[in-house]
């Protein structure tokens, strides 16, 4: 019973987070089609050709030997510094559809069905914190608080500098921890939410 | 006399009832066996979905679509990048995907303008999954079951011509043939001729006895008659085709024409030429005597005899007969036991099933097994192995394995178990346990970086030779791969350039037990050596195990168990088990982020940079090379935003090669990566990490524009306190001084 009341606000917070974050494909990550280059915006001109050349392209690795190890000719210059970013991917529209579907299933008490839909969403948007928070919610409904906590932590690792997502995540974590009897952990998480 | 006769009749009737029960139960058991169906993952289509036009076509064809008007279900129409697809609908474990007509454009390897032209509207639709194999659990082995209507007509007709011309007319036994055979046998003073009908042969096969006594033959004849009373001819013929004994491979019997076709020719039964069918038909008489691999001459003359019989029965015209007789046997060099297109992958599915299923669950037939195999990635992986390996030095001796997983889900997308991906043999991806070499280094440094008060990415570590003396007096002197020493190097460079001496020094400093613990946390379940040589990767792992370990590094410290199966249902779509995504935080995301930084540097400036010979520069990657002594194992493990892959190249006899991780395994890895459109790797900066411009040599913060400046992540609080200007003038950083003052 405690559990039900204590997580009451988490779905609300997430609903807010979800609104308006549906984004275009990729959701922020840099997409590299085969052979590189920017994806062209305009559709290809109609063609009646056979399957695309580049999809059938056979890669031609060179033969390298140990003696050549210190590369004589330098490969294509990759970006100079290791990459990172401040926030995770925004949700693409297809993932939002699946999350809505999961919400419906949750309302019908079908947490296993909701998890199925959310896993589809996660495959499409594996770097969006929201999907993981939603998974946590579905696991709470399915009474698996251990999994719920882990998915919340995973979501938090992708929340980056988005303070509303961070706040949702820490509050969700506090609720789950309290429901699991981890009072100290819960108030730690609440402190984090408050500090934002 | 009459009484004795009546008693005899009663006994005979009782005996018949008994035989009837025996033979029908055996027949039913064979006839109604339905194999478990194994499916690839369904392709999800939506705006933004990542797929190239070429792989969409391949995917459609795998799922049994035909080019057509795109209106009839199961057809698609393509015009350049524009597709119209009419799906057939599919009952997935989580609900029905309705029949729909879809329109979409593939451009830049992405789906756009996705819309539903007919059927319930949807923003995302799953195609029917491709069937990638069958598992016949009751036998605990693969069988390739065939149906009468799908086998080439020549097979049943030729079989009847040779073995039982009057099959469709007799009632199970052919007294005339028996009489003829008996006569011959009496003349010869022993059994030299069969005269059995196909039905009798089938009955004999059920009981797997080659013993030929009169009682036995009498029983067989009775059972054959009983069988004919219960079932029609086509049922009996079909069961015969699936049941007849056609060879032996070790302890394993080859039953049925479907499996025999794979075993002898490596081809599907429906693709066999007449001379190949004739060989199989000829072998019914004596699979071991006419074994084409062992006795090719005998087999050839037997085959030609069957071809003559076929011609005589009017099944082959004269010019065709001569042509077929002139063909070589066409037997494949290596026996294959499966029709499965992806033997290594299906092998892993088998193991996962066996791990999680009770035998009685597996006995229930007609299971539907939904796997995580991605046909496009599998295709790319097979191409990568089979095209790259021959280009490496001493290619003939080399073998390879490749595992590809979805980085954030742990789903195994593709698996290649050897250089001939179609060959179902030793599955190196799962069974080749090899020392991991330098692939261990990220875990050594992760263990160190989890103590930010002692180690950061710019901590100078000694790159100097040293000697360890064990208690028993043995000495150990690790060396760098290039035998050079550089005095001191910053930690990030020690990892990206994969120097050995710093790794051993850091590992010994942080403690071998702590490194062992990190490895266990990330998923190593086998015992790990206590010797310092473990710090250079004396730990032996199979490529899938390495993929499991690296999954935790790729996802920022969250273990994600590898899965090949999403769900198993029974024939009525009732879920039997579901294998859900699991995550488990096993390391501080901040420390893992620092390791990811150095693994990205590996690809940009370190041992993995030759990947960009093949890959576009915008595709940001992280990875690690591994090479063991004398190039016995060449490893590469790495990831992009979407995919994680582990490649291994080496020799089955564990012999030396001239290869390194970079020259042997990385080309395979890069080739696979180059064929898949995907997102670059760019991790989200976790809580508790800050980036600073630093001058590693001066161990100080510096300005962005300075020559030695490098933007490096630190666990908050572990960044340098000093700062330097571009000229190297060290000064105490003002801000941190003030911070210190007011704390």
TrEMBL record, chain A:
Pfam families: TPR_19. The lineage of its organism: Bacteria, Pseudomonadati, Pseudomonadota, Gammaproteobacteria, Pseudomonadales. It comes from Marinobacter vinifirmus. Residues 1-22 form the signal peptide. This is Tetratricopeptide repeat protein. Residues 47-69 have a biased composition (Basic and acidic residues). Residues 31-88 are annotated as: Disordered. InterPro entries: TPR-like_helical_dom_sf, TPR_rpt. Keywords: Signal.
């Amino acid at each position: 019973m405690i559990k039900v009341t204590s997580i009451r606000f988490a779905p609300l917070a997430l609903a807010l987070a979800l609104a308006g974050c549906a984004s275009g494909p990729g959701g922020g990550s840099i997409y590299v089609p085969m052979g590189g280059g920017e994806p062209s915006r305009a559709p290809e001109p109609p063609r009646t050709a056979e399957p695309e050349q580049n999809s059938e392209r056979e890669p031609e690795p060179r033969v390298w030997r140990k003696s050549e190890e210190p590369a004589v000719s330098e490969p294509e210059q990759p970006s100079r510094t290791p990459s990172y970013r401040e926030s995770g991917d925004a949700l693409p529209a297809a993932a939002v559809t699946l999350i809505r579907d999961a919400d419906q299933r949750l309302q019908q008490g079908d947490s296993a069905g909701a998890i199925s839909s959310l896993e589809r969403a996660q495959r499409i948007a594996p770097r969006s914190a929201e999907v993981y928070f939603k998974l946590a919610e579905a696991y709470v409904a399915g009474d698996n608080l251990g999994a719920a906590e882990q998915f919340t932590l995973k979501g938090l690792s992708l929340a980056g500098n988005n303070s509303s997502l961070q706040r949702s995540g820490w509050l969700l974590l506090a609720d789950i921890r309290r429901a699991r009897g981890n009072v100290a952990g819960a108030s730690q998480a609440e402190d984090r939410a408050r500090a934002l | 006399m009459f009484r004795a006769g009546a008693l005899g009749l009663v006994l005979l009737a009782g005996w018949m009832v008994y035989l009837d029960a025996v033979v029908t139960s055996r027949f039913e058991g064979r006839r109604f066996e339905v194999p478990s169906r194994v499916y690839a993952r369904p392709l999800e289509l939506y705006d933004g979905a990542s797929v190239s036009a070429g792989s969409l076509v391949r995917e459609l064809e795998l799922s049994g679509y035909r080019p057509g008007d795109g209106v009839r279900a199961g057809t698609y129409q393509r015009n350049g990048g524009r597709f119209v697809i009419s799906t057939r609908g599919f009952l997935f474990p989580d609900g029905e995907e309705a029949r729909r007509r879809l329109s979409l454009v593939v451009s830049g390897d992405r789906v756009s303008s996705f819309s539903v032209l007919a059927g319930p509207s949807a923003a995302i639709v799953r195609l029917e999954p491709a069937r990638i194999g069958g598992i016949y659990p009751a036998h605990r082995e693969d069988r390739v079951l065939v149906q009468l209507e799908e086998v080439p007509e020549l097979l049943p007709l030729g079989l009847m011509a040779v073995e039982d011309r009057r099959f469709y007319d007799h009632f199970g036994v052919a007294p005339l043939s028996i009489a003829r055979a008996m006569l011959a046998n009496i003349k010869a003073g022993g059994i030299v001729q069969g005269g059995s009908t196909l039905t009798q042969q089938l009955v004999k096969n059920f009981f797997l006895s080659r013993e030929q006594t009169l009682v036995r033959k009498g029983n067989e004849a009775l059972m054959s008659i009983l069988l004919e009373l219960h079932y029609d001819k086509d049922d009996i013929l079909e069961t015969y085709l699936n049941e007849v004994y056609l060879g032996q491979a070790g302890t394993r019997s080859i039953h049925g024409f479907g499996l025999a076709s794979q075993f002898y020719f490596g081809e599907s039964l429906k693709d066999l030429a007449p001379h190949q069918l004739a060989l199989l038909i000829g072998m019914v008489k004596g699979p071991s005597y006419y074994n084409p691999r062992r006795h090719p001459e005998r087999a050839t003359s037997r085959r030609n005899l069957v071809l003559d019989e076929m011609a005589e029965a009017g099944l082959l015209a004269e010019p065709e007969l001569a042509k077929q007789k002139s063909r070589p046997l066409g037997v494949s060099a290596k026996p294959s036991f499966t029709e499965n297109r992806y033997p290594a992958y299906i092998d892993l599915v088998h193991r996962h099933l066996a791990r999680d299923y009770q035998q009685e669950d597996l006995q229930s037939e007609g299971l539907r097994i939904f796997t995580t195999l991605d046909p496009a990635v599998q295709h790319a992986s097979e191409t990568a192995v089979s095209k790259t390996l021959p280009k490496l030095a001493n290619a003939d001796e080399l073998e390879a394995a490749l595992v590809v997983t979805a980085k954030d889900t742990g789903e195994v997308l593709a698996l290649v178990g050897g250089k001939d991906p179609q060959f179902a043999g030793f599955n190196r991806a799962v069974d080749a346990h090899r020392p991991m070499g330098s692939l261990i280094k990220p875990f050594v440094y992760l263990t160190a970086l989890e103590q930010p008060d002692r180690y950061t990415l710019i901590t100078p570590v000694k790159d100097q030779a040293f000697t360890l003396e064990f208690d028993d007096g043995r000495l150990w002197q690790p060396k760098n791969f290039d035998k050079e020493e550089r005095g001191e190097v910053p930690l990030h460079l020690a990892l990206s350039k994969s120097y050995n001496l710093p790794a051993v020094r850091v590992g010994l400093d942080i403690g071998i037990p702590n490194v062992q613990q990190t490895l266990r946390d990330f998923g190593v379940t086998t015992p790990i050596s206590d010797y310092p040589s473990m710090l250079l990767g004396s730990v032996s792992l199979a490529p899938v195990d390495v993929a499991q370990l690296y999954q935790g590094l790729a996802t920022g410290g969250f273990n994600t168990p590898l899965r090949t199966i999403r769900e198993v249902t029974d024939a009525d779509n009732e879920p039997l088990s579901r294998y859900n995504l699991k995550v488990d935080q096993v390391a501080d995301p901040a420390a893992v982020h620092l390791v990811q930084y150095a693994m990205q540097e590996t690809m940009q400036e370190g041992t993995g940079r030759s990947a960009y010979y093949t890959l576009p520069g915008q595709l940001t990657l992280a990875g690690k090379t591994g090479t063991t002594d004398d190039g016995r194992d060449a490893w590469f493990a790495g990831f992009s935003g979407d995919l994680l892959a582990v490649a291994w190249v080496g020799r089955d006899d564990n012999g030396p090669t001239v290869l390194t991780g970079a020259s042997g395994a990385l080309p395979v890895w890069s080739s696979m990566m180059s064929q898949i459109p995907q997102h670059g790797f760019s991790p989200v900066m976790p809580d508790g990490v800050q980036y600073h411009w630093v001058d590693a040599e001066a161990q100080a913060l510096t300005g962005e524009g300075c020559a030695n400046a490098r933007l490096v992540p630190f666990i908050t609080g572990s960044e340098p306190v000093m700062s330097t200007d571009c000229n190297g003038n060290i000064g105490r950083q003002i801000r941190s001084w003030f911070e210190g003052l007011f704390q």
